[in-house]
Every structure is written in structure tokens, then in C-alpha cells.
């Protein structure tokens, strides 16, 4: 009897949306929201410009822009790396120092 492999959870699947499509959508939404022009091509090519635009998207917490920023980073950089073992917990409480 053969067993079928279980599908991974939907949130662990990579987003198939290409970075170009995400950049275009971000540019359109920011243009409409802030009435400013965002260059989608520069968003793809210039890391400092990308950082600034994505920080603006992050600030729109209850908006599609925040979700698009996460998807765009994953499409450009890949998924975020897990912190090294033993790191990422912050400083020890004062009672343990």
C-alpha cells in the first residue's frame, strides 16, 4: 500500500508572485495612498531605495502594503534566516546577571 505525502501547510509554501509584479503593485498602492511616485524598476535595482520604500510599506500596518513588503522581501532575499542557536533572545534578565 502506498502512502501519499502530505502537502506542506499553505503558509510554508513560497509565494509564486514574481518580484516585478510585487514592485508594480507596491508602486501603484503607494502612489494612490501617498500621492507620490514610486519607481518600480528602481525598487528592484537599488537596495537603499528598496529599503526606504519597504519601510514606508511596513508603516501601513493594517494595509495591503505591509503584506506586500513581506512578500517582496521574501521574493528578493529569500525567506529570513533563523537566528543562530543561542542568539536572538535578548539580554539575560537582571536577576540572572
Helix content: 40-55%
Bulk shape: elongated
Extended strand count: 0
Mean pLDDT: 82
Secondary-structure-based class equals mainly alpha
| Biggest sheet layout | none
Number of helices: 4
Low-confidence stretches: none
Strand content: under 5%
Radius of gyration: 18 Å
Secondary-structure element order, as H and E? HHHH
Distance between the termini: 57 Å
Q: Concise description?
A:
It contains four helices and no strands.
Written overview of the protein:
By secondary structure, this protein is mainly alpha-helical. The protein is 51% helix and 0% strand. The chain contains 4 helices and no strands. The protein has helices at 19-34, 40-45, 47-59, 64-77. Helix 1 (19-34) packs antiparallel against helix 4 (64-77) and helix 3 packs antiparallel against helix 4 (64-77). The protein starts with 18 loop residues before the first helix and ends in a 20-residue tail after the last helix.
